[in-house]
Design brief:
This protein has 79 residues and is of the alpha+beta class. It is built from one helix and five strands; from the N terminus they run E-E-H-E-E-E.
Length: 79
Amino acid sequence: MVYPARVPLRTRIPTVLVRLATDDGEVVFRARWTRSPLELQRNILFRMRRGSLLWFQDEWGHDLCFRPECVYAAMVDGR
């Protein structure tokens, strides 16, 4: 017999709050990330310098993609 979980599984996935300043305005979302928030912020800056697309997955499992030339600031808050 299967019992439903009392806590949704998405609450158990570690997330961090990401704020991106883009040409269209500020974008705020919770991204799935298992390592430290500082490492994600460094990863974002590294990809922006290289000109790579910024791919994220939000807490609901949807993919978010940003072009690096449209993003000019990034901030990652802890859990």
